[in-house]
Amino acid sequence: MTERGLTDDIMKRRTPVAVAFLGVALALGACGGKDGPEALAEQTAITTIGVNAYLWRASLETMQFMPLAQVDSTGGVIVGDWYQNPAAPNERVKVTVAILDGALRADAVQVSAQREAMEGGRWVAAPVRAGTVQRLEEIILEKARGLRQAALARD
Q1: pTM of the prediction?
Q2: For labelling alongside 141, which of 29, 54, 102, 108 has CA 20 to 30 A away?
Q3: E strand spans, the chain
Q4: In this model, does residue 52 exceed pLDDT 90?
């Protein structure tokens, strides 16, 4: 690998973490001094990176088990590459997460998944197990709410 290619590879790996950290740091710095529902609404609509920082960080943490093909914090899209669970080597999945809003709301995160199974030596499209996408969305939302609660508790 060339030096330029190695540098690009390192930057691709560090950028999502740095962006998430920056978003959380800016969000925490903006907290304080205001009371009431308006201040709380402002704190949950963090858009310093283009999308809600809590949802973004929670999505990255949730997707860390698989290689990532694309990460776009401005557009709020995380595209996973094909992942094979060692316990199920004859199937693979690909997951995409889209953050649709700057607010921390249930309808602000959308997960889609593809699944393929090995048949006759080639990968063939297979249905995603029922509830998989919904469960991933729930995990992301639970993590995001936990991150927000932890940030509020520090204030």
Answers
A1: 0.68
A2: 29
A3: 68-72, 77-80, 91-99, 109-119, 122-126
A4: yes
